[in-house]
Amino acid sequence: MTDARTLPPAARQWLDRSSPSGQPPASRVQLRQNGEFDSNGRWLKFGADAVYEAEPFTFEWRARLRVLPGMWVNAVDGHSEVTGWGGAKMWGIRSMGERGGPEVHAMQLIRSIAELAWLPDLAESAAGLGWADAGSDGFTISGRAGERDVLVRFEVDPQGDITRARCAARPFDVPEGFEESPWRLDYGDHRELDGARIPVSAVATYEHADDPWEYMRVEIIGRERS
Prior knowledge:
- The structure is a single chain.
- This protein has 226 residues and is mainly beta.
- It is built from three helices and 13 strands.
- The chain has one domain: outer membrane lipoprotein receptor (LolB), chain A.
- The chain has helices at residues 9-18, 102-114, 120-123, and strands at residues 28-39, 42-53, 58-68, 71-79, 84-90, 94-100, 130-133, 138-145, 148-156, 162-174, 177-193, 196-206, 213-225.
- Strands 6-5-4-3-2-1-13-12-11-10-9-8-7 form a 13-stranded antiparallel β-sheet.
């Protein structure tokens, strides 16, 4: 568990504003989401559940994407302490590809750290993460995916709400393997849900130099802590 006395000022401001009042830290948070995902220029709607555990810090996201009437894809992303994974199956049966290895571990850990904006009551107890000051309007959280260190910078507005999480180099898969690009989550529409003040909307973008790719839009529709 992170020592609250050593937290950066911007992080302390965010947690004081956002964590459920009078509640102990959460060890597990489950989110229900609606959203849409860009698949080759076509936006596919999805519903998803995401589960985050504090110790060890783990994450799993399960979604169903609607492709056509009567056709859907089940997708899963996640990471444990030692590995990361991702994959999709048509109708939940026919595999459309699986991903694994160190790049996927880093990719998924960067994502789950950035999504701590939804988990103020779990963030301090998330194991294996390092917090650092990044000026009056921000802080960073770092973690380790295998042999690789990853870092996410959070931007905090004057009221103490997180407005953006950004990583300078997040892997993404290409036919030949993996490349890296700056990546960000832009957060908005902050409100109280399950006792915590969180942004209930987010947009994910890979900041490719030649062609930035906004590829996922998410709305949080439910939250449960334990």
